[in-house]
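Quick one: structure tokens for this chain, please?
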Amino acid sequence: MDLGLQGKKAIICASSRGLGKGCAEALAEAGCDIVLNGRNEAVLATTSAALREAHGINVTSIAADVSTKEGQAALLAACPDPDILVNNNGGPPRRDYSELDREALLEGAIQNFVTPIEFIQAVVPGMKARGFGRIVNITSLSVKMPIEGLDLSSGARAGLTAFLAGVCRQLAPHGITINNLLPGKMDTDRLKGGFERSAQQSGKSVEAIRAAQAAEIPARRFGNAEEFGQTCAFLCSRHAGYITGQNLLMDGGLYPAAF
């Protein structure tokens, strides 16, 4: 399927690995020029080179923390007028709510609530002028289904969802869509780290923990970055112009609901 994205410009936050990388690969395959972002310069360079070689598109790499004003400025300087913005950022570490002090609460809110809103504020004027814009926010299954120890991440991402529910309807007349992708248990480094912690705490093997958690998912497997990225690319495509304000779960059926 031709997504109608040839020559479009995309900023993809936290995209040198994991789900962000999956989005970058799918958008590069669709013909977008990419602004790639990560904190590890070596990993960033490897991902950038692979995208250029595989798809022959322009890739600009920005090593920066997108939660900082300096990091945001660097990405926007590299691409002042993106057609596509994929908001993504690591969440606060797993921690019981009772252990969170004011500093930790504010940092989590900046990472997963303030930062994506600031990016949207920066890119929307250009999207309005061109009559086209696609914004995808990578949030989490935890917005709908609490996950122990991720209360701060869940709360900040849920706040972002509520904040943008009105904003997306203001922007729809201008050809701009805002949608949220909610990953469940995806086969990423973050998930693997969780397996290792559970194995240490329980005395079970990592393989046993992995198998038990996969068995809880109706699809009987974990998701992967490739299918996640392809879904993101479709939401950015010309075919998805009538989809906005939606929260798309990608969890293999783990969240049990009819609506």
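Helices lie at 18-29, 41-55, 69-78, 102-130, 151-171, 189-202, 206-215, 225-236.
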